[in-house]
Amino acid sequence: MLLGTVAMASGAAADEVTHGEEDVQIQVAVTPVGALALNVANPSVTLGETTDDDIWAAGNREFTGLLDGISVTDDRNDVGADASWTVTGQVSSFTAAGLADIDSSNLGWVPELANPIPGDFNVTPGQPIAGELQEVPAGEGPGGDWLTGGVQVGDLLVSSGSSLEAKGQSFGVKAGLNLTVPKGTPSGAYASTLTLTLMES
C-alpha cells in the first residue's frame, strides 16, 4: 500500500463572478501661486503752480506735482524665462465745465524707481517726456534721454526686461508731472485721467 497526500484544487476562484467594472478619474489642479499685479496707493494728484520768472516771461504758466504710490508686485511661481512686463500711461485732455480743453500733450513726466532694490532685477523707469510747451531740461532723466511731445498713448512708465529675474519682488515707481499752459488759459478747475496699464509679453 502506498501512503501519501493528494492536494485538492480549491474551487473558490472558479466560484467568483465579476458583475461589472467602473473607472474613477482622480483629478488635481496645481494652480499658479501669486500674481503679477499693479497697485495704485494714491489715486489722485493735485498740481500746484510754480513761480519761475523765466516761464512767465516766455508767456506760459507751469503746474507740477508728483505721481507716487505706484508699485508692481510679482509673486508668481510659474514665470516664463522669456517673459517681460511693462506699465504704460495714457492721459486724457484736461477739461473744465464750459471752458476749452487743455490738450494732454501739454503734460510731461519724469519716471523714476521709488524703492530701488539692490541687485540686478532688470527693472528700469521709462524715458522722461517734456510737454509741448515745457522747456526740455539739460541732461538725462533717471530713465535716459528726454523725449518731447507730452505723454501720449502707450508711453512707458516702468518695465522689466525679464519677469523671471523680477519675480518675488515689489517695485515702486513715481513720476514728476509738469503741465505747462499759455498765460491766457482761462481760469478753472481742470481735471484729467491718467490710465496706467500693466502688460506682460
Arithmetic mean of pLDDT: 87
Cα(first) to Cα(last) distance is: 93 Å
Supply the helix-strand structural class: mainly beta
Give, in order, the helices and strands. HEEHEEEEEEEHEE
Overall 3D shape: elongated
| Strand runs, count | 11
Helix content: under 10%
Strand content: 25-35%
With helices defined by DSSP (H or I, 4 residues minimum), what is the helix count?
A: 3
Verbal overview:
The protein is mostly beta strands. It has three helices and eleven strands; from the N terminus they run αββαβββββββαββ. The strands form three sheets. Strands 1, 2, 3, 5 and 10 form a five-stranded antiparallel β-sheet that branches. A four-stranded antiparallel β-sheet has the order 6-9-4-11. A two-stranded parallel ribbon has the order 7-8. The N terminus is likely disordered.
Secondary-structure blueprint of this entry?
Blueprint: H1 12-15, E1 36-40, E2 48-49, H2 53-57, E3 60-74, E4 85-91, E5 107-113, E6 123-125, E7 129-130, E8 147-148, E9 155-160, H3 163-166, E10 169-182, E11 194-200
Parallel strand pairs: 7-8
Antiparallel strand pairs: 1-3, 2-3, 3-10, 4-9, 4-11, 5-10, 6-9
Summary, kept brief:
The chain has helices at 12-15, 53-57, 163-166, and strands spanning 36-40, 48-49, 60-74, 85-91, 107-113, 123-125, 129-130, 147-148, 155-160, 169-182, 194-200. With 201 residues, it is mainly beta.
